[in-house]
Structure formats: structure tokens, C-alpha cells
Amino acid sequence: MTHPETGTSLDMSSAPAKRAAYALLQAQAASLFAGERDWLANLAQFAALIYNALPGLNWAGFYLARNEELILGPFQGKVACVRIPFSRGVCGACARTLEIQLVPDVHAFAGHIACDAASRSELVLPVLVDGQLRAVFDLDSPLPARFDGDDAQGLSAALALLVQATDWDTRPENKA
Fold first, then answer.
1. Which of 121, 134, 123 is CA-nearest to residue 162?
2. Domains in the chain: how many in total?
3. Which pLDDT belongs to residue 36?
4. Does 74 reside within a domain?
5. What's the pLDDT at 175?
């Protein structure tokens, strides 16, 4: 991750340094959301922030929950799978269980969907609004075991800021 003002790399080699880097990322996210509550704009900005701030990613983005299916939302990276049933893949497992999925080796995950053959590890977090699944946030890496508990915790905190800063009921499918 690079410091937003100096452009120098932040130390992510230790747990305390990584937590400090995620604290900075959360401050950047809060700044992005200041004065903007539109769900589409906030999801797009968040995906861009994470993709550009975290090293070792080849994809970062959202899949929006629609009934028992996830549909591609704002993302950064190569083209992706457009629809994922809750019954398949790491994203589907996250949507189905509402639990963070931290997968050090996607090839060992039964039912993994390979949107990009270069991906080796994956972290997927549920986006819950008032207890309801609205989306999952998916991160892929070409590096094995790229993600750990500190990544999950730091991104969960950043997603909490997103949820709080966003007007979710303005999505087109929620309008009468």
C-alpha cells in the first residue's frame, strides 16, 4: 500500500504495520464517501481505492445480491463472471453463509469458479445492510495465501464505513 501524500510504500510486513495501513485506508475511504451517499458511486470508488491501494491484487469488486444469485457490480481488474449462483464458488459460499471466506488456495476450494486462471487466493466479505445481504466484496490475487485475518479485519472495518455512508434503498430495483 502506498501513502496517499508521499507515494512511498507503507510497511505491511508485520501485523501492527498492516493494522496501521488499514487505519489509513479507512480514513481514505471515509474521505471518499464524505458528501456522497449514492450506492453506485460509493461502490465504484471503494473498488478503485482497494484495487489501487493493496499490493498483490488482480481483481477487486462487488457482486450484488439478487434473489439466490450474485450479479457483477462495480469492480477493478480483468473482465469477470457476470452471474454467480449462491450455490457455487467462493463468492456464492460467502453469500450463502454470510461469513467471510478466506481461501489461501482457490484450487483446493471445491466448486471454485475460475474467472481469471491467474488467481491463486481469494478473500470475499459479505456486505450486510440492516442484516440483509446486499452484496459481497471479492478480492483475488495471483499470489498463494495473499490474504490473512488482518486483511479480513481491515477490509471489514472499511466496508462498515461504506455501508454506513451509503443510501442503499436508492438502487433502481428498490424503487416502486
1. 134
2. 1
3. 95
4. yes
5. 44
Answer whether residue 138 is part of any domain.
yes
- For the domain that residue 79 is a member of, what is the CATH number? 3.30.450.40
Asked if the structure places residue 93 within a domain, the reply is yes
Handedness of CA 73, 87, 93, 175 (dihedral sign): positive
Is 144 inside a domain boundary?
A: yes
Residue type, 16: P
C-alpha span between 76 and 58 (Å, rounded): 8
pTM metric for this prediction: 0.89
pLDDT of residue 9: 46
CB-facing half-sphere around the CA of 68: CA atoms within 13 A: 3
Residue 21: domain span: 15-174
- Grid cell for residue 52: 489501487
The dihedrals phi and psi of 5, each to the nearest 5 degrees, come to -95, -40
Residue with cell 466496508: 159
Task: Report helix angle 15-33 to 149-165, nearest 10.
Answer: 10
For residue 174, give the DSSP letter: G
Laid out side by side, the sheet with 59-66 consists of: 83-85, 69-77, 59-66, 132-141, 121-129, 101-103
Mean pLDDT by 10 residues, the chain (176 residues): 45 80 94 95 97 93 96 95 94 97 89 76 96 96 94 96 91 48
Name the strand (E) or helix (H) holding 24: helix 15-33
